[in-house]
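Narrative of accomplishments. A recurring question from our advisory board has been how the design workflow behaves on a single, concrete structure rather than in aggregate. To address it, we present the structure tokens for one chain from the evaluation set, followed by the sequence designed for it. No filtering or post-editing was applied between the two.
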């Protein structure tokens, strides 16, 4: 009799253990956290006269205006995609017209990827020759664009996002690899590379090999920039 009772008790314990194991398995299955839903931005409705967008780009946010006391301009001539006929090309950034020597601020925290501490501007003859070659080609070569931007600082923000600050008259005592905070002074406004444009900061947000807002009609471009500087 005692043997039968012992066997029954063991069987009961085995059954309880199996039920508990099944319960734990079920609980673990229901505790899995689903992946977060990607953020979807609400684009403004296009007017009937707007050209269709070339592509719906990634929208960025979290940048601050790189010149204190200014707003992001809305005039087309200061924005990406505006024509630059003197070199058969297009603008790739945002221009902030402001007096020479005005401090330039990091638009977002990141790591210095380029800083032109030693810089020599090109001569007027070199500049004109480069512009003539660009017009003959029908586009502006990358090397010419780099010379036009003059003295520069580039900041890497990770995720293939880089900001460029161009036409500077001077740069801060920083080196490649230094980490800078948002709002930190990285240089001063000037007109290096393209003195004909007068003193202003040329500011670019680069996404991989492309510039932010490339190909967007003006309505969508203004919206994309308003999101970037929220």
């Amino acid at each position: 009799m005692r043997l039968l009772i012992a066997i029954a008790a063991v069987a009961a314990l085995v059954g309880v253990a199996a039920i508990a194991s099944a319960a734990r398995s079920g609980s673990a299955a229901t505790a899995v956290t689903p992946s977060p839903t990607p953020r979807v931005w609400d684009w403004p409705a296009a007017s009937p006269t707007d050209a269709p967008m070339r592509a719906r780009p990634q929208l960025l946010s979290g940048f601050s205006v790189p010149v204190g006391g200014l707003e992001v301009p809305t005039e087309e001539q200061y924005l990406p995609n505006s024509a630059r006929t003197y070199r058969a090309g297009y603008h790739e950034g945002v221009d902030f017209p402001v007096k020479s020597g005005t401090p330039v601020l990091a638009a977002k925290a990141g790591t210095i990827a380029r800083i032109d501490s030693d810089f020599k501007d090109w001569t007027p003859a070199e500049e004109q020759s480069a512009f003539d070659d660009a017009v003959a080609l029908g586009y502006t070569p990358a090397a010419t664009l780099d010379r036009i931007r003059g003295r520069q600082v580039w900041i890497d923000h990770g995720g293939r996002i880089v900001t460029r600050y161009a036409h500077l008259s001077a740069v801060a005592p920083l080196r490649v690899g230094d980490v800078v905070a948002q709002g930190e002074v990285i240089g001063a406004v000037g007109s290096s590379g393209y003195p004909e444009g007068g003193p202003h900061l040329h500011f670019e947000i680069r996404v991989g090999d492309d510039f932010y807002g490339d190909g967007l009609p003006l309505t969508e471009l203004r919206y994309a920039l308003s999101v970037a500087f929220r």
